[in-house]
């Protein structure tokens, strides 16, 4: 993983385990989710009940949910479900630059995150961590 220009970095916020707020991520787990799979006689809806489903809430309307997948099949580059099916963001750090821009760097493990931060500290001691 490449390190950005370390002289323009002002601050690094480290998040080893982060639970995003409700407005930051629209994914959630719903127990006994009723997924419509078709219709019978062109009128009566037919549902399949999924024991644990990952859904995406569409905007401000809580009743408009989009089925994503079953919990056991969920794979994401940025999120994972931890204990008690709570959504967490993978270990990451937010790098704040001099020009008020920022960049997030995600990692698979906390050790990778710590190694990255240690490397940043050694190359540029002026960075606020």
Provide a compact summary of the structure.
This protein is mainly beta and 129 residues long.
Structural summary, described in words:
It is a single chain. The protein is mainly beta and 129 residues long. The protein folds into two domains: 1-16 and 91-129, no CATH class; 21-87, no CATH class. Helices cover 11% and strands 45% of the residues. The chain is built from one helix and eight strands; from the N terminus they run E-E-E-E-E-E-E-E-H. The strands form three sheets. The chain has a three-stranded antiparallel β-sheet, covered by helices on one side.
N-to-C terminal Cα separation, in Å?
Answer: 19 Å
Instruction: Tell me roughly what share of residues is in helical segments.
Output: 10-25%
- Name the shape in a single word: elongated
Q: Per DSSP, what share of the residues sits in E-state strands of 2 or more residues?
A: 35-45%
Count of helical regions: 1
Total strand count, please? 8
Which whole number gives the mean pLDDT?
Answer: 80
Largest sheet: 3 strands, antiparallel
Radius of gyration: 20 Å
Keywords:
129 residues, mainly beta, 2 domains, three-stranded antiparallel β-sheet, 11% helix, 45% strand
Layout of helices and strands, plus pairs?
Blueprint (H helix, E strand, L loop, with lengths): L8 E7 L11 E14 L3 E14 L7 E6 L8 E3 L5 E3 L2 E6 L4 E5 L3 H14 L6
Antiparallel strand pairs: 1-7, 2-3, 3-4, 5-6, 7-8
